[in-house]
Amino acid sequence: MTNPRCTLIGARVQVGAGRLGCDMGPSAYRAAGLAETLSGLGLDIVDAGDLVPGPFVERPHPNGALRHLGAFAAWTETLAEAAHAASAEGIPIFLGGDHSLSAGTLSGLGRRAAEEGRPLFVLWLDAHADFHTLDTTTSGNLHGVPLAYATGRRGFAGYLPAPPAPIHPGHVCLMGTRSLDPAERVAVREAGVLVHDMRTIDEAGVVAPLRDFLGRVAAARGRLHVSLDVDFLDPGIAPGVGTTVPGGATFREAHLIMEMLHDSGLVGSLDLVELNPFLDERGRTAHLMVDLAASLMGRRVLDRPTQSY
Ligand code: MG
Ligand code: MG
């Protein structure tokens, strides 16, 4: 029997973020030893290199705040193809890049799940909901829209390719949420997205809410995608991100989530997004994200040499 296969796919997406630097993310994960760490767990690792989006033209939109809409559409198309192809066998891990890349990964994975006759579930670990439409975002930063796009909210037609199999909003679970705009707050509630915000984690911990969600995925024979935004973590342990929000998940909360996800055997794909190496402290955040990916892929004991930051 061969070892489980993992494909690393770099996506140097920068166009969705307000601050420059996310495009260095894939290099930082490689420098922090992601492939070697996962290989050490006995996984068969293939590094597929970095994607390159197709040609595009920028186009006007009534919301004048939007920037890089054409480039975002091109990335979405490229990533959707890559996610669909890579999910045929093994577990693809997408190395961002800002969170707008998940518009593409979710689109391609939704198509894969539909072809398998299974529902796609999404665990969105993030301080934010990323549930804006092109019309409701006031920042104009497109890393705030991927979940709205992938769940089939209106307002993307004519600007982005239609997602072939939109994800049911009730199959999406937000964890760690602590920064929602008013328009998103209403939209998330009306859509029926499951939200375990930081207050829920403070009060109930991570185990019960996550166990409940994983039970639902298993009962539906679902395919599970995990999208991990660096700002899910508390800025005190993960400073390398352009959108820090105080009061995030602790080191152990984050690892426990990853360990439970591994134990569930349900995870089919992973996004690692929003790492900004330009804002990091000597690779500290990159190393933490690599360690979290390792916990998700089966590392059990947190035993490692002390690092000198
Ligand atoms: Mg995000
Ligand atoms: Mg975020």
Please explain how this structure is put together:
By secondary structure, the chain is an alpha/beta fold. It has a single domain, classed as Ureohydrolase domain (Arginase, Chain A, 3-Layer(aba) Sandwich), CATH 3.40.800.10. The chain is 35% helix and 16% strand. The protein has an 8-stranded parallel sheet, sandwiched between helices. Helix 3 (69-86) runs parallel beside helix 4 (101-116). It is globular and about 55 Å long. It starts with a strand and ends in a 13-residue tail after the last helix. One magnesium ion (MG) binds at residues 126-128, 229, 231, 243. One magnesium ion binds next to loops.
CATH architecture heading: 3-Layer(aba) Sandwich
Helices and strands, in order, run as EHHEHEHEHEHEHHEHEH
Oligomer: single chain
So what's the CATH class? Alpha Beta
Number of helices: 10
**Strand order of the biggest β-sheet:** 2-1-3-8-7-4-5-6
Q: What's the story with the biggest beta sheet?
A: 8 strands, parallel
Distinct ligands, ions and cofactors found in the model? magnesium ion
* CATH domain fold name: Arginase, Chain A
Report how far apart the termini are. Answer: 40 Å
Q: What sort of overall outline do the alpha carbons produce when their principal axes are compared?
A: globular
Quickly count the domains: 1
Residues in helices, as a percent range: 25-40%
| Rg | 18 Å
Task: Tally the beta strands.
Answer: 8
CATH superfamily: Ureohydrolase domain
Average pLDDT confidence is 96
Beta-strand level of the residues, as a percent range? 15-25%
Uncertain residue segments: none
Structural class: alpha/beta
